[in-house]
Amino acid sequence: MSPTIGWLGRWRVFAHERFPLRENALVVLANVGAHVLAARALTTHGYVTLGGRDTLLFVAALAIFFRLRVFDEIKDCTTDRHAHPDRPLARGLISLTEAKVAAFSCLAFEGACSAVLGQAAFAAWSLVAGYSLLMYREFFIGWWLRPRLTTYAVMHTLVACWIATWTFCAATGRAFADMPASYAQLVFAN
């Protein structure tokens, strides 16, 4: 850990290098915004808008994607020390313990936001959280998955489907079992 840069400064460097906020916020906003509008268009009959609750949904989604990035950095730290020694965790800018605290703090924040967004949103977020924790542990078969890059990538990409499901529930207040088939197609398109 760098003694010359404070906590916030170290995380700014991390974000700049591994999770550029402007670019990631735009991608998350476009993704979440499209899913919110689609979910509402398919479940209501009338004019569809984005509102104040959607700001909370967006902030929670940004936290989810940031946590996924931090989880990835933690998982890859050992190999990055040799393959990518310039990365923040590998070079010691952020300690593994600090990264874990940040990731699990994001997890708690996401859960709190989802609870505010409603019971359906919290239930769907629980699926996002559970799946992402399995990803973090590499489904307990990392030794088998890592050499199989396509399988590894597909298994990790499926979290986008869970996030789209969570977005539906948070945007509509409906349980994921009440998702229209047309929105389910969008979920799988992720």
Would you give an account of this structure?
By secondary structure, the chain is mainly alpha-helical. The chain contains nine helices and no strands. Helix 5 (119-136) runs antiparallel to helix 8 (159-172). The mean pLDDT is 93.
List strands and helices in order, with pairings.
Elements: H1 7-18, H2 21-43, H3 52-83, H4 96-117, H5 119-136, H6 142-145, H7 149-157, H8 159-172, H9 181-189
Helix pairs in contact: 2-3, 2-8, 3-4, 3-8, 4-5, 5-8, 8-9
Compose a concise summary of this entry.
The chain is mostly helical and 190 residues long.
Large-scale geometry? globular
Number of extended strands: 0
Distance between the termini: 37 Å
Helix content bin? over 70%
Low-confidence parts: none
Quick one: biggest sheet?
Answer: none
Gyration radius from CA atoms, angstroms: 18 Å
Mean pLDDT: 93
Helix vs. strand class: mainly alpha
How many helices in DSSP terms?
9
- Give the H and E element order: HHHHHHHHH
How much of the sequence lies in strands comes to under 5%
Q: What descriptive keywords fit this protein?
A:
190 residues, mainly alpha, 9 helices, 0% strand, globular
